[in-house]
Design brief:
One of its GO terms (cellular component) is mitochondrion. Pfam families: NIPSNAP. This is Nipsnap homolog 3A (C. elegans). InterPro entries: Dimeric_a/b-barrel (IPR011008), NIPSNAP (IPR012577), NipSnap_domain (IPR051557). With 248 residues, the protein is of the alpha+beta class. The chain is 38% helix and 31% strand. The protein has a single domain (37-241), classed as Alpha-Beta Plaits, CATH 3.30.70.100. It has seven helices and eight strands; from the N terminus they run αβαββααββαββααβ. Strands 1-3-2-8-5-7-6-4 form an eight-stranded antiparallel beta barrel, surrounded by four helices. A hairpin with a 4-residue loop joins strand 6 (180-189) and strand 7. Helix 2 (50-65) packs antiparallel against helix 4 (107-117) and helix 5 (159-173) packs antiparallel against helix 7. The model is unreliable at 7-31 (pLDDT under 50).
Length: 248
């Protein structure tokens, strides 16, 4: 009887410990269900050549979009002077590799655009991201307005640690009267545990007004307070869509 009782006690302890552990389906990663990813690119331009770069890109971007899908292209107005930010969509890493190889062999692209544009850049940065599982990429409700790119650097551990709190904080603001969340992207290659949220507002003044309003909403304040416990830092940029941008 003592042996049986000891065995049952040990089994109960093991089961309790197992129940306390995260389930195997809880991943520390992005839980991406398909291969599609988005490459986020930021170029810093020489101040005296920003206008020339945008003019050249407006004239020659069709040479680039012949190879892969451009989601949006913006100039940074606040939060990073003389910068452009753009998002490209790929079905897989193999597709991106094929696109890059084709561009390297595209004489027109290299002679009419790349050789000129590269002289106008100070540096380039890129990041591979996935849409978070609960986010869908949407277009702005209307053309014009101002876009806001908010970047959150979260504590290490991935969505298994901070995913629910982060989702609650963002979706609390993505409601009528507070703004339009167009997409939330989780980094896969680049600085990890980073999430980018792309918002749209009718104007910069409307954004300021809605931000002030949200600070007095107890529901949003509570959601943000819980999420900030997992946050290391954040920054933002206000963007204006270029004339050739698919997202206007």
């Amino acid at each position: 009887m003592n042996r049986i009782r000891s065995f049952l006690l040990k089994s109960a302890a093991v089961n309790a410990t197992a129940a306390a552990q995260p389930r195997v389906y809880i991943s520390s990663g992005h839980q991406q269900q398909h291969q599609t990813f988005y490459e986020l690119r930021t170029y810093c331009l020489h101040p005296h050549q920003t206008a020339s770069f945008l003019k050249l890109t407006n004239e020659k971007i069709h040479l680039r979009t012949a190879h892969s899908q451009l989601i949006g292209y913006w100039s940074v107005e606040y939060g990073g002077l003389n910068q452009v930010f753009h998002i490209w969509k790929y079905d897989s890493y193999a597709q991106r590799a094929a696109v890059r190889a084709a561009l390297a062999q595209d004489a027109t692209w290299n002679s009419e655009y790349l050789s000129k544009a590269s002289q106008m850049m100070m540096n380039q940065d890129n990041e591979v991201t996935y849409l978070v599982p609960w986010s869908n990429l949407k277009n702005a409700p209307q053309e014009g307005g101002v876009y806001e790119l908010v970047t959150y650097q979260m504590h290490p551990g991935g969505p298994a640690v901070w995913g629910k709190a982060f989702q609650a904080a963002l979706t609390a603001r993505d409601a009528p009267g507070y703004g339009n969340l167009l997409g939330a992207f989780h980094s896969e290659v680049g600085l990890l545990n980073r999430v980018h949220a792309l918002w749209w507002y009718a104007s910069a003044d409307q954004r300021a007004e809605l931000r002030h309003k949200s600070h007095t909403d107890a529901r949003i304040v509570a959601a943000v307070r819980e999420g900030v416990a997992h946050l290391e830092s954040q920054n933002n940029k206000l963007l204006f869509a270029c004339p050739f941008s698919p997202m206007k």
